[in-house]
Amino acid sequence: MNPRHDLSIIVTTVGRASLLRAVRSIFSQRFSGPLQVLIGVDTDLSDGKLADYRATIEAECPAHISLLWLDPGYSTSRRHGGVHDCCFGGSLRAILTLLADARFAMYLDDDDWLLEDHVTSLLSAIDGKSWAFAYSWFCDGQTGERLCVDEIESVGIGRGVFTDRFGGFVRPSGMAIDSLALLKYLYLWSCSPFPAGDGVDRLIFDRLSRHPVGCTERATVCYSLDPNDDAAPLRRSFIEGKGKVYPDTPKPDSLRRTPPRYPAGQPVPRHDLSIIVTTVGRTSLLRTVRSIFSQRFSGPLQVLIGVDTDLSDGKLADHRATIEAECPAHISLLWLDPGYSTSRRHGGVHDCCFGGSMRSALTLLADARFVTYLDDDDWLLPEHAATILSAIEGKSWAYSFSWYADGDTSEPLCIDEIESVGVDQGIYAETYGGFVRPSGLTIDKLALLKYVHLWSTAGTPSGDGEDRVIFSRLRHEPHACTGQATVCCAIDPHDPAHPARVEFMHRKGITFRSQTKSESTRGRLTAEIRNPKL
Predict the structure, then answer these.
(1) How would you classify residue 368: left for phi > 0, otherwise alpha for psi between -120 and 50, otherwise beta?
(2) Rounded to two decimals, what is the model's pTM?
């Protein structure tokens, strides 16, 4: 299935007025194909003006361009109280790339802008390549004056003043990547190689430089100069050598001059645990989230609910209203509903047919270091959060045992002793080295950041098996088990493992007679495979 957009353009912002110029330069492109603009708010430093900027952008947006805003209400950067090292945007670039509704993703800082033929030339350059870039202009960010083409910095692999130190360089603004070809590098946007929290652009370039690259051979990106940048003396020398005047006026809204909110160092995350639920709007979502609300744990929890696609026949809005009304004071809610699916099953980009890239994106968005996953038809027993947080201390991941349960009656049937039982255990010991199902699995996301993208990849041609892919990496990392069964897994007759489960329960003296499961996504997938027109 072809993606719905030719290119997704990612802009991260702190609410600077220059955001309007950046986005308008996208709107002015001489390109009539479908484009998507994803704007992520790291934190709002606009003194209340960002809402007006957003209204202006939405009013001016052309018909062939779609907009997606992501403003979680907090920063993902440790500079402003978040979890991730990158002090300029936190994990937002990685999140928005995963959410992008096109295979090709381009980046643009909110103080830079594009010339009108940028998109056309860039899409031509990336054809058959893993990534591409255009040359850029050094510009006065205050007046918008183009001073001269950058011939010393953002000039490609093995070129320019950074050749000896970094093997060359290409700055993020104007860079485009094939997000599927380079999926394993996306998490690096949230990292920093330096204590100050910068240098993410060097880190990304180091990995990209190992892959086929295209160049437009044209300067179509306007880079806003900042006298506070460490490279300012170098740029001044080059620009003045070209007979131009380097702008000495302090750059308006310079992020390099903006003091961090936590100057004493990395703050403690605002939540002890983030619990991620992906949904297609099943009624069972209410039971799932209520089981989180009922945890015997008084510390701050975050629940992130990602909508893959809405199959609820209009009921999801009511489910959301109910959940928000019942949410306890110590739990915060974040809903992410982009209005489209990231899964190729429903027209998106990513292989995984159960949530697309939603789990990956929400993991990076989580406002806690420890992240738990829960399917929207499974549920937790009240002691789960407390026991899993105790088990993961000093480890990279942890899990609890689970109950086989009747999803229609909410009845726990018996403890699963054959499947989700750990590394080198159970019926999958020989084929997969054991297994732990996603529901109830908890990870230290910073320790396992390099694996987060794997939630969006399928382990089989039919689009499932992402849980096996993840487990194949986790099994080699330090882990622990609570030793208790605190997760209820709704069994599904459409699941390939169902016969083994029924046989096991029969040996335990338990008879499960149901031949169906309400709102089964596996049953729906089976029908879709048999009839792709569904």
Answers:
(1) beta
(2) 0.94
